[in-house]
Specification:
2 copies of one chain form a homodimer. In chain A, 54% of the residues lie in helices and 16% in strands. Chain A has 170 residues and is of the alpha/beta class. The first copy, chain A, has a 5-stranded mixed β-sheet. In chain A, helix 1 packs parallel to helix 2, helix 3 packs across helix 5 and helix 4 packs across helix 5.
């Protein structure tokens, strides 16, 4: 499960599969909260939406976009707060949590850490065999996070296995 | 209940009383988490500590320090995440949540929005009739938030009452 945290729009994407096999879209959604509401209320809405998915889908792992202080400062506080809510929701259930930076995600799905939103959306559509790029961008970003996590996690798992095998041989 | 959010140290202070009466310290604590642990684990520790107090003390309201993007950027992400956790913990229970800025808190307890940590600690000790300033500063800041909330809330309540009374008279 990939989560693109945000206070106004929080993307959630669920992808099934393993490295070397076609990946499948399970579900995608964008939680929206109104700026008219208090931040605490908005965060509770986001927590409920994330919890509902964790309970329904029981993902194997949760990948959250890593937030940096240098990002757009007008929304960064809400994004950081939403990312904290996402991490706690997953950690409470003992799920593995990975943080991937935006450039790691772009590089994983498009081959370039500087890919723009349209390129990411197009690649997500191609990887998941969707007729059109997921909209809005938060939906595509959440799916890209999930894809990145499967691919990077898979590579890491193979590396760990190779190291373990080498250890047994020596 | 005042909460000075932070990932390494999260201050919690509980103060009882009303405007115009001496305020009383009920409890004060600083939740600490190690930088060796994953952020998600640290946030869960903070959530548990806050929840434990909310369950034990049933505060009437929760005051959380308002976090700004312009603060020290090395710790701002963790502070924002911890503040989100604090707000959600309170909002989930339907408690009123107030955000006060550091300068509002300093002004409320010391008369100056530019008071330093030592002045805030000294004033918190005087207001709560403590023999020495609470240590560390996060503990004093959490108590100062609780004091500020009682005083500002009280002033607001009196204002509301006066407006309501004027409305009845007219």
């Amino acid at each position: 499960m990939g989560i693109d945290p945000g206070l106004t729009r929080c993307g959630m994407g669920l992808v099934e599969g393993t490295v070397g096999r076609p990946l499948t879209l399970v579900d995608v959604n964008v939680l929206r909260t109104s700026a008219d509401q208090p931040v605490a209320t908005r965060l509770v809405t986001i927590e409920r939406g994330i919890n509902a998915w964790l309970e329904e889908y029981h993902p194997d792992a949760v990948a959250v976009e890593r937030v940096f202080a240098r990002s757009d400062s007008s929304t960064i506080m809400g994004t950081a707060q939403a990312s904290g809510i996402a991490m706690v929701a997953a950690a409470r259930r003992g799920l593995p949590i990975a943080l991937h930076t935006p450039s790691e995600v772009k590089a994983a799905v498009s081959g370039s850490g500087r890919a723009d939103k349209a390129q990411v959306g197009a690649m997500v559509a191609r990887i998941l065999r969707l007729p059109t790029p997921p909209k809005p961008a938060d939906a595509a970003d959440a799916l890209a996070l999930a894809i990145t996590h499967i691919w990077r996690g898979g590579a890491q798992a193979r590396l760990d296995a190779a190291v373990a095998a080498a250890g047994r041989k020596s």
